[in-house]
Design brief:
The chain has one domain (5-456): Anthranilate synthase (4-Layer Sandwich). 29% of the residues lie in helices and 30% in strands. The protein has helices spanning 16-19, 67-78, 103-109, 160-171, 193-208, 229-240, 286-298, 300-318, 357-364, 375-385, 436-456; strands at residues 5-9, 29-32, 43-47, 53-56, 96-101, 132-137, 139-144, 149-154, 181-183, 188-189, 214-227, 244-250, 253-259, 262-267, 270-273, 276-281, 327-336, 340-350, 372-373, 396-401, 406-409, 414-418, 421-430.
Length: 458
């Protein structure tokens, strides 16, 4: 058992100010509840300078043939940090792995390689962002907004000079920075309405043929940009106020995730997943906003779509949970965020004694709410039809602590900045009674406010 170094820090509601002190360190990460703009989350976790990293592109290496091999390597990495003493397990994170895992990497590990003719799939941003990034972070600043507390924790494995550097940075007043960010081109999409309609019809053909019940179809937006992605994220986190947000800087890539969706959480071996299926735009007019929310709640199509994914995720987590422990706690709950209404369901289970959080993540990745059902066939159809790689979109940003806890998001409402290019994806689940015009409109409703805001930044 390890004894953690733990020092209380002065609480501040907005952790983004603190992140300024860490941003120039290697591989800085900010797992962000979006507090005080959202009260749905609880913790913020900030760190940098991992002891070791895994950076791999599955499509161009043969060293990993399936999820188990890659995640076993992560288990070996995590084992470098001894678990903390029992009286120190109240923290969500006591040192461990923080990572960003791409949808494309999950697809490759599921045995679905890039389709023939896929060489045009955003080759200019591939493979800078790795299919899988995992860093072993031995220290962190953990903020608990429920108890209004903040502390610096450090595992004994942390090099003394690294901890001294962190302490030095915290002792200095945060520098007031106002980095610029702006789009330097118009926002374009690789699927206009006519192109989307053609793919929508092909999805319907697969559904009618019995290949799938639901298929998630996405399109990509992109624009040139100049300036600091961090400044873009700072503003978007206020606008989106999403409880599973994250900002990561990797060499050559910045990930801006404004996700409202949790993927998998493990706390004291209790498993929680909260899939989102069903979306409606919000309105500034209260009466109209209520009407939109009520229509979403009453939508048979959206409820059926949600139920399909609930069944899929019950099956996925059932691979690692104790038999009979899985239960649906909430079904079709309306949750309203800054820019959209969602239908959210809550599923719980208990992790089997012979399974680890990383094994659960391996068994379920990528998340079923952004593929379709049945999952494997839906992913094959997605790879055949979509004219792009998804990269971090529909992947996950996650942490796995050496104290046995884990949390992760579904990387939707997520942007990627690389080499002066900004990418953003948006999609939705298509079922037999979906209407093309409404599905196409929904892809804009989910990210339109974010992209419109970026257009106004100067």
């Amino acid at each position: 058992m390890a004894s953690l170094y733990r020092r209380a820090l002065t609480y501040q509601a907005d952790s983004s100010v603190l992140f300024e002190a860490l941003r120039d360190m290697p591989y800085p990460v900010f797992l962000d509840s979006a507090y005080p703009y959202s009260d749905r989350g609880r913790y913020d976790i900030l760190s940098a300078s991992p002891l070791e990293t895994i950076n791999t592109n599955i499509s161009i290496t043969s060293s990993y043939r399936n999820n188990e091999m890659l995640f076993r390597e992560m288990e070996t990495l995590l084992a470098r940090l001894d678990p903390p003493q029992e009286d120190e397990t109240d923290l969500p994170f006591s040192g461990g792995i923080i990572g960003a895992f791409s949808y494309d990497g999950g697809r490759e590990l599921a045995g679905i390689s890039r389709s023939a003719g896929s060489t045009d799939k955003i080759d200019h941003c591939d493979p800078v962002f790795p299919d899988f990034f995992a860093g072993l972070y031995s220290w962190a600043i953990v903020v608990d907004h429920h108890t209004q507390s903040r502390c610096l924790i450090s595992h004994p494995a942390t090099p003394p000079e690294l901890l001294q550097d962190v302490e030095r940075r915290l002792a200095l007043a945060p520098a007031a920075t106002t980095p610029d960010f702006c789009l330097t081109s118009e926002i374009s999409t690789n699927l206009d309405e006519q192109q989307y309609a053609a793919l929508f019809e092909r999805v319907q053909q697969y559904i009618r043929a019995g290949d799938s019940y639901q298929i998630n179809l996405a399109r990509r937006f992109e624009a040139d940009y100049a300036g600091s992605p961090w400044e873009a994220y700072r503003q978007l986190r206020i606008l989106a106020a999403a409880p599973f947000s994250a900002y990561l800087e990797l060499p050559g890539s910045s990930v801006l995730s404004l996700s409202p969706e949790r993927f998998l959480q493990v706390t004291d071996r209790e498993v929680l997943t909260t899939p989102i299926k069903g979306t409606a735009a919000r309105s500034a007019i209260p009466e109209t906003d209520r009407t939109l929310a009520e229509a979403l709640l009453a939508s048979e199509k959206d409820r059926a779509e949600n139920l399909m994914i609930v069944d899929l995720l019950r099956n996925d987590i059932g691979r690692c949970c104790e038999p009979g422990s899985i239960r649906v706690e909430k079904l079709f709950e309306l949750q309203s965020f800054q820019t959209v209404h969602h239908l959210v369901s809550t599923i719980r289970g208990r992790l089997a004694n012979d399974k680890s959080p990383l094994q659960l993540l391996a068994a379920c990745f990528p998340g079923g709410s952004i593929t379709g059902a049945p999952k494997h066939r839906a992913m094959e159809i997605i790879e055949e039809l979509e004219p792009h790689q998804r990269s971090i979109y529909c992947g996950s940003v996650a942490y796995v602590s050496c104290n046995g806890k884990m949390d992760s998001n579904i990387a939707i409402r997520t942007l990627l900045c690389e080499a002066g290019k900004l990418y953003c994806w948006s999609g939705g689940g298509i079922v037999a009674d979906s209407q093309m015009e409404l599905e196409f409109e929904e892809t804009w409703n989910k990210v339109g406010s974010l992209l419109t805001h970026l257009q106004k930044m100067r």
